[in-house]
What does this fold into?
Amino acid sequence: MNMSDPILVNVTEEIVRGLVSFLLRGPEYQTFCKCKTCELDTVALTLNALPSKYVTSMETRDDAFREMNTPESIERINKEIIHALHVVNKHPRHKIEPTS
Ligand SMILES: [Zn+2]
It folds into this structure.
């Protein structure tokens, strides 16, 4: 892809997807289901609680990413993710056996 090609990306989504995947595989959430349904439900719940940040170029994407990648901002996002992780863990929608 060319650097100047227009894109449509929610930078909040990018960050939340990465953090959910990271947290879910960490020691604190060992017993939580890691199936795609539960992972994406956690991402969706978190994103519904946070403001979206859409950008239309790789350049503005990098700027937005940098702005959002501060300790305060990550802490706020992590708080929403942890809340969502517990909601999904309590009310999983997967129809198969949980995976870990
Ligand atoms: Zn699951």
Helices lie at 11-24, 36-49, 58-68, 71-90. The chain has one domain: 9-90.
